[in-house]
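Changelog-adjacent note: as of this version, every example in the card shows the full chain rather than a window. The one below runs 144 residues end to end.
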Amino acid sequence: MPLHQNPSMAEQKGFFRKEQPPPLQQNPEIAQRIRMLEERYSSVTNRLQLVEQNTLASQRKAHADIKAILEELTDIKKGMNDLQEKFLLLVRELQATAKKEELDVLAKYISYWEPLNFVTRSEVEKIVQEAVESTKFIYAQKRE
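Full-length structure tokens:
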């Protein structure tokens, strides 16, 4: 028997068959589940975009914070180097100053010399002038 005469074969091959509604219209429960899944997928996609945006914003902020911290660290290092140089200069200057033992030796010499008993130049000149005048006066009396 030819194929087109067998009604079961013709329906299977697509000859003159009835059109069936799409599968979603056949089962409304499946259509509802698919819509829910599509909404969930859309919601998850939106959340993922939001998370990505927040992550990028956080990454930019962290990068800016790290950059600021590195700049501050550089400034602190410069300050530390300046302080170290000043401390070294101070140590060199302190090494060049007199030590306590040296000051004690100077104090002993000063106490031996008693500088308060020294006379000034003007005092010596005054004493010499008085001595000269007194000798003139003595010579003048002897001549008379």
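Structural remarks: The two ends are 193 Å apart (CA to CA).
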